[in-house]
Nucleoside-binding protein (Oceanimonas smirnovii), 261 residues
Amino acid sequence: MIQKSLLGLLIAASCVPAMAADWSTTELQYQIGNLKQQPFGPDADDKSTTSIYTLQHASGWKYGDNFFFIDYSDWKDSQRRRDWYGEGYFNFSLGKISGRDLSLGPVKDIGLVMGINAGGDSKVRKYLPGVQLALDVPGAAFFNTLITAYIDDSTGVAGGGAPKESNSWMLDTAWAFPFSAGSHDFSLEGHIEYIGSRENEFGDKVKAHVLAQPQLRYDLGKTLFNDPQRLFVGIEYQYWHNKYGGSVTESAVQGLAVWRF
């Protein structure tokens, strides 16, 4: 069911922009770094060299915008492991729908959002209804803040997955700041999220976490092939306090390569 729900989400996200896209961007990303893949138990601080392959898409249409990504992770601890995780968000712009200028101070627009998060082996599924604030920040290509519920619809231990959890809420801010140094183009982009504490099905506390994933990108395609906004290299820094709601904090730098089409 989780796989079908996420697949349906991505099909919908892809079909709407295809029919009436104002803009559309799709990326293949590759990251490599040493990450803590077992944040619970005696091996919580052990790190594994992890490769992450990501398909990411963003698009805008007549009544709003869409965003999704799917991560496929490949690492080795006591054995070779692979898993996937994805998120998708539909934002319906109240300004576009009403045809009115809803800007107020730094807020350019307000949207109603429906999100879904889903995992493979964990069999996790979360629904995230809420609002999105599009903010006018100098120098930013975009600067958006999401405030949503965090509603659990996972299968739980009985279904062979991670423990079910009580509901909570999320605050997430995503941004992109392009800049240049001489003839070289860069971008500082990423997001930071906070998800509130909750309880799992055994009554154990799942701690609130903070996850920040800023990327520094260099436009290598422009330099090598005179083809800007196509091929990027750089780094991603991941800071994850209370990873997966446990007591482990992740702090890791990963190499990054991006192909945009």
